[in-house]
């Protein structure tokens, strides 16, 4: 065999062997090794200590007179308790202490009660906070007889009655006779003396020397004028009249010169006749 033929055979054999190894490598499955790192999240729980804080049970508006039903104790994190909060642990009687106070700044439902938002009983400005917008407070002298036997209490409704002397001209002479008329209706009583709120432990009656009434500006003038004309009495009205928005029947004509008692009523044959500026 010639050397050239031998070289060709050896080359062909080498190529066949190389092709066999190549085919074998392509047919074997590829093994891929992957490293997967999973991130683990660990949730840690921490116990939070709680206390009970005094909060508003409802929305409290400016001027509201507060009662025990307006407060409640609510759970509160101890670390979130700030100065001024009333806690049940330290102020167990806080509800009774704050009953009868008046709202100075609005407080919303479930909001903790802060003393800066209330006007305490006996504090300067308490009466001004108690008044409804646009109203005035005026005091009248009372007695047991002129105040329904002492059963008129703060927040009651009353009629204001004026008793005065009127002149009557008879055949022989001019005589004085008492006349009584209602000059103002459905007036709210703010206080008796300096008592603004009746607690459960207090008496059912309140006998004092002065009643403070909530009236409109012109009604305040009327009452001040009427006290100079005669004696004022208070007639107690039922609670059902509290929402009555009808006429208050104010005798404001008394402020325009129609003062009672200035006129003279002339009686002829037992019948009243027109007189001089009749009452």
TrEMBL record:
Pfam families listed in its UniProt record: RcpC, SAF
Q: Which CDD domains match?
A: SAF_CpaB_FlgA_like
Concerning InterPro entries, the annotation shows: Pilus_assmbl_Flp-typ_CpaB, RcpC_dom, SAF
Q: Where is the SAF domain?
A: 51-119
SMART domains in alphabetical order: SAF
Question: How is this protein named in the record?
Answer: Pilus assembly protein CpaB
């Amino acid at each position: 065999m010639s050397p050239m033929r031998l070289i060709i055979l050896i080359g062909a054999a080498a190529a066949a062997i190389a092709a066999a190894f190549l085919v074998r490598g392509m047919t074997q499955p590829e093994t891929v090794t992957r490293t997967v790192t999973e991130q683990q999240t660990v949730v840690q729980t921490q116990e939070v200590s709680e206390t009970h804080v005094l909060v508003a049970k409802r929305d409290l508006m400016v001027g509201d007179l507060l009662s025990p039903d307006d407060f409640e104790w609510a759970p509160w994190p101890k670390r979130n308790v700030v100065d001024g909060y009333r806690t049940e642990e330290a102020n167990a009687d806080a509800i009774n202490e704050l009953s009868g106070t008046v709202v100075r700044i609005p407080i919303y439902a479930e909001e903790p009660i802060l003393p800066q938002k209330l006007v305490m009983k006996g504090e300067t400005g308490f009466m001004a906070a108690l008044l409804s917008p646009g109203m005035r407070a005026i005091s009248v002298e009372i007695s047991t007889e002129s105040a329904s036997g002492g059963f008129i209490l703060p927040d009651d409704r009353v009629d204001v009655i004026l008793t005065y002397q009127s002149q009557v001209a008879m055949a022989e002479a001019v005589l004085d006779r008492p006349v009584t008329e209602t000059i103002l209706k459905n007036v709210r009583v703010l206080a008796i003396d300096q008592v603004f709120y009746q607690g459960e432990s207090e008496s059912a009656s309140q006998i004092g020397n002065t009643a403070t009434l909530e009236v409109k500006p012109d009604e305040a003038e009327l009452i001040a004028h009427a006290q100079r004309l005669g004696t004022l009495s208070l007639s107690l009205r039922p609670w059902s009249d509290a929402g009555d928005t009808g006429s208050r029947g104010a005798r404001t004509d008394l402020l325009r010169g129609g003062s009672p008692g200035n006129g003279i009523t002339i009686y002829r044959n037992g019948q009243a006749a027109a007189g001089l500026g009749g009452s």
